[in-house]
Design a protein that fits this description.
By secondary structure, the chain is of the alpha+beta class. The protein has two helices and five strands; from the N terminus they run βαββαββ.
């Protein structure tokens, strides 16, 4: 068993940018905008997004079904 560090998604809200980009519940986000998530800072994703503005694109690496996947998410106002 491989231990993956990151942010575990319990739920992905319908119509959210994350859902539109393809993230699903039980995905583990490992990198956001090139920054590794270690699980030590539960606000890490919020801190990264707070430095961005609406319309910015963020690359997200995540782990699903023992595979690393990458998506690009576009920030929206809601």
């Amino acid at each position: 068993n491989e231990i993956v560090e990151g942010a575990y998604l319990i739920e992905v809200l319908a119509d959210s940018p994350a859902k539109k980009a393809g993230l699903q519940a039980e995905d583990i986000i490992t990198y956001v905008d090139g920054k590794k998530l270690t699980g030590e800072d539960d606000q890490a994703i919020s801190k990264i997004i707070a430095k961005k503005k609406v319309g910015d694109k963020i690359d997200i690496k995540f782990w699903r079904n023992k595979e690393v996947k990458t998506i690009t998410l576009t920030l929206t106002a809601d």
